[in-house]
Each structure stands twice: as C-alpha cells, then as structure tokens.
Amino acid sequence: MFLALTGFWLYVVAIIAFIIIIGIIICFHEFGHYFFAKKAGILCHEFSFGMGPALYKKQRGETLFAIRAIPIGGYVAMAGEQQTDIYCKPGSNIGLNLVDDVVTEIILDDNKECQVRGQVVRADLSGKDGEALYITILVGETEYYYNVKKDAHFVFEKDQRLQIEPYDRTIDSKNPWQRFITLFAGPMNNMILAIFLYFIISFANGVPNYSSTKVGEISGENYPAYGILEKGDELLSINGNKISSWTEFSQTVDKEYKTTTTLLIEYKHDGVIQPIKEIEAITIIQSIGISNADLKGDDLKAITLESNIKDKKGNPITGLKLGKVGFREKIDVKQNDIITKIHIDYDSTDEALGLVDKDVDATSWVLVTNEFDKITSQATVSFDYYSYNDSDKSYEEMKTSSNTTTYTNEVLESQSVAKIRHLIGISCETHADFFPCIGQAFSYFWSDFTLIFRTLKLLIAPSGVRQIGVSDLSSFVGIYKLVEKYIGAGFIALLTLTALLSVNIGVMNLLPIPALDGGRILFLAIELITRKKVSKKVETVINNVFFVLILVLFVYITVNDIIRLF
Fold this sequence. Notes:
The structure is a single chain. By secondary structure, this protein is of the alpha+beta class. Among the domains are: 85-164, no CATH class; 282-418, no CATH class; 435-565, no CATH class. Helix content is 35%, strand content 28%. Strands 20, 21, 22, 23, 26 and 27 form a six-stranded antiparallel sheet that branches. A five-stranded mixed β-barrel has the order 3-4-7-6-5. Strands 11, 12, 13, 14 and 15 form a five-stranded antiparallel sheet that branches. Strand 6 (134-139) and strand 7 (142-155) form a beta hairpin.
C-alpha cells in the first residue's frame, strides 16, 4: 500500500500520518502531566491537543478537553500557572450568582445578567492560610460579604468559564516530590512510548543472525542485488574469499571495497551452487554528499558513465557520473554531472598527520573513496566537472565548482553516520528471540537518547570549530518531510520515526531552559537548595522571555525549512 502512493494521495496520506504521529507523541506527553497532576489534587483547567482556535471541546468534570486547529504542540493548563486574582482586584466591577447566599459564579461580562452586581472592596479566592474564600462588594453605599464555593467559576464574555483556584488546588501548594513528578511525567511518558515502540520494532524485525550467511531481505527492485540474489540464498564466497558467517561477509566486503566496487558472489540457491554473479555496488560518500546512486522512487541502483559521451564542442568526456547529490549547504554539482578532478585542501589537523593538499583524478570510485576516507577533520573541496543540461540532455564545457567542506569524523560519528557507504541491497536473516529483542529495543532507545546530546555538543561548540548550526535543525515542516519520505518505507519505518521523535521531544523538554519542563524543574531544584521559592513574578517573567525566544527560534528554523523545500 505504501509503495503505491504517488502524487496527491501521497501528500494526503503524509499529512494524515504526520498529524497522527505528532498527536500520539503530544498526547502521551501531556497525559503524563495530567495524570500525576490529578493524582496530586491539582486542578487542571484544560487538556488541549494543538494550538489556536478550538475545533472540538468537551467538558469532563473539572477539565475541558479540546482539539485545536494547529496540530503542533499541546498543553495541560494547571491551577497556579497564571494569575487569576487580577479578575477580582479591589475596584473591579463584577456580578455574582449565588446559591444559598454562597457565590457559585463571578460574572466578568458587564452585559450578562446576574443576581448581584457591585464593586469589589476586598476578596480572598485562594484561602492560602486555610481561611474561607470570600468576596466583599460595594452595592450603592452598602458593603456585602459573601462566602465563595471552592469550585465557583469566573464567567467571561461569550460565556467562557474558568474555575477559581483555591491555593490547595494549585501546583505551588504541593510538596516538591509531587511537583517534580508532575513536571517530569511528560518527558517520562515520551521515553516510555519510545521504548514500547522499539519493542514492537525489535520483535517485528527480529535480531540479526550474524552466524548465518543466508540472505534475509533484498532491499528493493532497483538495488544492485535485485534479480540476482533472493531471500534464503546462502553466500559462499566474495571475490574468491570463502565466508562462513555474516560477520565474515561484512569484513570481507569492507576489505574488498578498498580495491574494487565490483563483487563476484558465489552462492547457493535452493541448496544448489550457482554460477558466480557480478554485482556493482552503490557508493555514497556521506562526508561530502556525492554518490553514484541513481534515485528511482525510493530505490537505488549504481550508475556508470556511458561510452562515447561528448560535451557540446564534441570533446570526449571521461570521469565519474554523479547520482543522487545531497548536502547541508549549497554545492554546485548535481545529479548526472560528470566530475573529472577533485581538489582537496586539508586543514591543519590532517596536515599534521602527513596529508598534503592534492588534486585527485576522478577515474574510479575506489580511488575517490580512498582519498575521502583519509580525511579526519574538515577539508575544503572543489570539483572540475561537466554540467548536465536537463533541457537538451547535453553536457556543458568543463568548469570548476565553488569550494565546499566535508563533515568531520566527529560530526559523522556523533550522528551514527558512516563516512563511506557501499550498498548492494541485501541484509542478513533475523530471528525473534525474546531476550535479544528486548536488549535490542533498549539499544535502539539508548542510541536515540544520546544522539540529541551529541548533537547539542556540536551546536554549542566554539564558532571557530562549529560545523553544524541552528540552520541545520528542523521544525515541524522538516518533520513532515521526513514523514513523507518514510511513508514509502512502510509501517515499521514510521514507527521507528515516531520513536525517534518521541525521544527527542522528551529529552528537549528536560533541558534546563525556562519555559520548558526542564526549566521549571530547575526552579524547583533552586528552591530545594536555597530553601526558598523563586518569586512567582520573577519565574513568570523569565519563562515568558524564554518562551518568546524559543518562538523566534522556531520561526527562524521553520523559514529555513520552507526555503529548503524550494
């Protein structure tokens, strides 16, 4: 079903999948806050998915459950997070509705009918010291004192309602443990969701059986191995090297790629030894973002330069034809261009290892990958190349690209990205053993959990050595594009993306940044250390300032995402 989606329906399904994925992650996060807030006796005014105007609202008990128009973000509005005493400050004109002379509604709409209307003289709607809640209002020349029910409501224009907040129902009234678990429960739920999804993924995929040489899966119809190998085939040798396990197969292939990208594979099919087959590997140099991978849909195949190719002047062209090209910043070369020479300018770190600047003739992918494999730090690279003209299917005269830089080993390793990848499109057999699958699930989780800290380390590195920046981050637009990409890979791939996003949202919310859960936990830690609460006014101002800064950052990242789309 997934692979058949194209055009309009792909976008429709991607949007629906995006909303479902974000909705699940946000709802799990907010339910953590809500559940432990209710356990602690904290009044929760609203549980909302999304932001902006409400599309659907349902009052259940004290809490309004809402779905809002913009499906990004969500919140649980808890008592004590906003100032409500301003609604009944002395001098305010209010109305009251009473039951047995006890206030049940405080009317803040001047046009709404009520039983009593007057000017507030004094009021206590918190009962912080255990005293009864009350309002004294001036009607004409006479003051009237009224007790107020603990579950009375403010009533605003258009009949909007908000339950008053007695102090014992606010988050501030709870002990440090109750406040901590209420704040921590959102990110905790994201972690629990991710681990649960990784359990499903691990048991669905199984754990690799590295002791066997049997082929488990063929990646896709345009991968090099498709039509040559089949699921269940048993690999016997690679380029004449006998193999007895998948580990040995991987090690042998890595060794062979130092000298060739062509694999001669001997194998058994249905127990019968087959003639040796030749498979040309896809090569991807991820440190710079070039490859010989011809992208077709979601599948790949290795491409080579056809013979007798000439430029517009009739000059013969030799070199390496580029497949899919991808990089974090502008790079001049593109798919179908032909590179003839690569100019590498090593930085001081690699020069100290004995490497000297050089020009590399692009005569083979083996030669090129071996040169890029030597680079450990950040090298400056440019290409001599023939540019492919899509309109008339011709090649322009040779030119030289502007300089670009490679990712360093530090960046690639921090993101668990291989510098050089060779693919033929096969994977080993898997088996669903209970305990190995459990261990694999936690391994997946730990890798994603630490990934964000490795990324933050790169983001806050000194500017002189920083290799990625804020412009490399993704907003919800970037996440949508990921969902769109993963749609074609199937349900398990979408679960994997959901787990990764859940971990990221959980960890990000735990960072000690005001306006996030981690920032509020930081204020709690300061209180425990100093034995004194941070002023509510100070905390509110700091949170609001950082909220605006985060919003500005979010807009900046979103604009970058939109620019990248075009």
